[in-house]
Structures are given as C-alpha cells and as structure tokens.
Design brief:
The chain has 307 residues and is an alpha/beta fold. Helices cover 37% and strands 18% of the residues.
Length: 307
Amino acid sequence: MMRVAIFGGPGFVGSYLVDALIAAGHESSLLVRLGSERKVRQVGRCRLVAGNLSSTTAIDATLESCDAVIYCVGILKESPKQGITFEELQYNGVVRVAESAKTRGISRFLLMSANGAKSTGTPYQETKFRAEEHVRASGFDVTIFRPSVIFGDPRGRMEIGTQLYAKMISPPIPAVGFFTGWRPYQGAVAMSPVHVEDVAQAFLTALRESSTIGKTYVLGGPEVLSWAEMLRRIARTVGRKKWILPMPIGIMKLAAALFDWLPFFPVTRDQLTMLAEGNTADPAALAQLIGRQPKAFNEAYLAYLRN
C-alpha cells in the first residue's frame, strides 16, 4: 500500500486516478481549492488539503507522509486575471511540488504532460515540455505520460466528447470539420482519442512497475481518427444526423485572431495551431501498460453523451 499525493485530483483525469488508486488499495492525498471539495469522489477515503499551487504550505501538507507524487494539472485556456495561466499551473506548480517532494525524500514522481510537448511550441506545449525537463533534472524516479485527447464520462468536468457534442452536434447548425489544406479535407486533422480509465490504469501500472522509471510514454487509443470522423461518431451515439461543413484551419485562425479574446469563441489561435499539428499515438505503448486493448472512441464508450 502506498500513499500518493495527487495534484489535480479534483479534475477530470484526477477523479479517475483517485478511483483507480483506491481500488488498488492505495491512499490518496489531494490538494483541493476552496469550493472544489464537492468535486472529489470518495471524500471519506482521501486526505484533503485546502489550498492552491501558489501555497508552499498547502503543497507541503499534501505531500506529508506520501510515498509518491502524481502531477496531472493542465488547462486549455488561460484566465490571467484569475491567476490561471500555463506558466503558473503547468510549470511553476511542478517546480514547487518537486522542491517540496525533494525535501521530504519522496523519489517517485509521475507527471502527466501532453502529446506534442516541445521547447518551441505554443505556451501550452512549451510549459508542459519545461515541466518534463525540470522533473527529469531533479533526480526523481520519474515516469512521464503524454496522452492524446482524453475522453470518457466527464463527471461534470471538461472533456472532448461533451465539448464537441455541446458546441458542434447539439446546435441546429452545421458542425465544422477542420482540415489543414485549402481544398475540402485536404490534410485531415488526426487524433488518437484515449479513454480516461485507460490513462488512469497506465499511471497505476507505473506506480507498481519499476521498469517504467525513466521512461516517457505517448498514450493513444486503438484508432487514429479524423476530426470529422470523431464528430460523426458522436452524432451516431446521440442519434443525430449532422451535416459537417469543411473548414480550413487557416480561415478559423483569421477569425480567432479577431475574436478569440471573447469568452464564447470556441477555440484560440494556439489551439488551432496544435490541432493542425495532429495528435496521434501508437496504441502499442498503452496496450502494453494496461495489459489489454485500449477502449475505442465509439458508441459503446461514448454512451455517457446520451445522459
């Protein structure tokens, strides 16, 4: 049995990590922002510490008597006035947690990064990459995960399937099928959607297997799907017929340059840049970690969208 500190525990992936750890007989210690306690599942079986990633006192308390650390904090859009930035949450938070873990003699560190993390990318990609580099350089027994887009029952949180349904399938207007060229579907946007339960199981395997130390795993589901095919599968799942309007990402970038500062605009310029790069992964790494075929982005595993 291990006690594992989870930073990002109340979030989408974090909630599944908590479930997986408890099912395996481990204990969880979670840093929870004031007002987010209601998001934590199985509250009575977790240690909750009130605070945020800017508080070293709260970080210290979360890590007290722990054997390992999981950092799975990530955002898709910044809100600087609220202190929600890529730099603060995806890099500075990792640095503070790593420093505190070091002082407590915690050697095991699992980090959720992102597929496409790199030193010269968008602020999202660049902060994820620097966090990886910092943890590696700090001397931890580290395992890093770079998942493709993660789907699954969101439990009231943000998730790709529910976002696409709400923004593109549910409204009585055509859905948008992105592609990178200028002729319809020239250069299809491709992804390897990965189920959140499979991601949680990969973390659990890493905690158990020392052979994962020092490795970086790119996690993807069993299929590479185009953006349009993902929309079609969501539409079939909820029993909707949907016309998909081909849309060059270049045109959307022009619109985003004018309007992405507005709260209702669906995507930012950086998100479109990353979308154009693609987000695919070989499913073999995940299948090996979890010991079975990963779950597919299909009607069976998208059934939560019917609720």
